[in-house]
């Protein structure tokens, strides 16, 4: 009788452990089933997000260089939809949001070409301010995907 009771308890423990194991396996797969890779959004509109340190005393030079250098170049790019510039007075930070028709069109632009435009931008700012280095430090760059 005691042997039978022992086997019954062991079987109950085994069943409990087995059920917990099955639940854990299925729980860990649920997020993977719902997740989509970013590659699925190659054809969707995307917003490039840039944050820069822009001190108040050189804000006008930043805005001028944005208008003279980046605006014309961006306007000539396939897939460019527009952009918005924001400036936070308290943090002395700029937020630049660039709208692209798709991530694929945006990422098709060679980095070497972007670097040439960035150098023109920096040269413009340094000449306007009569300084030896670009005063606008990149804080963050990323992208935002349109949600449905």
Can you give a write-up of this model?
With 148 residues, this protein is of the alpha+beta class. The chain folds into two domains: 2-33; 42-145, Alpha-Beta Plaits. It is built from four helices and four strands. It has helices spanning 2-34, 59-75, 103-107, 111-129; strands at 46-53, 80-88, 93-100, 137-145. A four-stranded antiparallel beta sheet has the order 2-3-1-4. The termini are far apart. The model is unreliable at 31-37 (pLDDT under 50).
For the structure shown, list the relevant keywords.
single chain, 148 residues, alpha+beta, Alpha-Beta Plaits, 2 domains, 4-stranded antiparallel β-sheet, 4 helices, elongated
- End-to-end CA span: 64 Å
Total beta strands: 4
> What is the overall shape?
elongated
What's the arrangement of strands in the largest beta sheet? 2-3-1-4
- From the alpha carbons, calculate the radius of gyration and give it in angstroms: 27 Å
Beta-strand content estimate: 15-25%
Residue runs with pLDDT of under 50 for 5 or more positions = 31-37
The SS-based structural class is alpha+beta
Largest sheet: 4 strands, antiparallel
Q: Provide the CATH topology of the largest domain.
A: Alpha-Beta Plaits
Mean pLDDT, to the nearest integer, reads 85
Q: So how many helices?
A: 4
Helical percentage: 40-55%
So what's the CATH class of the largest domain?
Answer: Alpha Beta
Number of domains: 2
The CATH architecture name of the largest domain reads 2-Layer Sandwich
**Helix/strand order, N-terminal first:** HEHEEHHE
């Amino acid at each position: 009788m005691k042997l039978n009771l022992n086997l019954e308890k062991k079987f109950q423990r085994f069943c409990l452990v087995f059920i917990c194991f099955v639940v854990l396996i299925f729980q860990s797969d649920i997020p993977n089933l719902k997740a989509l890779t970013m590659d699925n959004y190659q054809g969707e509109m995307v917003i490039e997000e840039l944050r820069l340190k822009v001190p108040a005393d050189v804000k006008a030079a930043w805005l001028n260089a944005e208008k003279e250098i980046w605006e014309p170049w961006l306007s000539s790019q396939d897939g460019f939809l527009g952009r918005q510039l924001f400036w936070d007075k308290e943090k002395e930070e700029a937020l630049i949001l660039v709208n692209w028709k798709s991530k694929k069109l945006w990422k098709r632009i060679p980095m070497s070409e972007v670097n040439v435009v960035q150098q023109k931008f920096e040269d413009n700012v340094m000449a306007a301010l009569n300084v030896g280095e670009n005063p606008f430090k990149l804080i963050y760059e990323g992208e935002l995907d349109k949600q449905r």
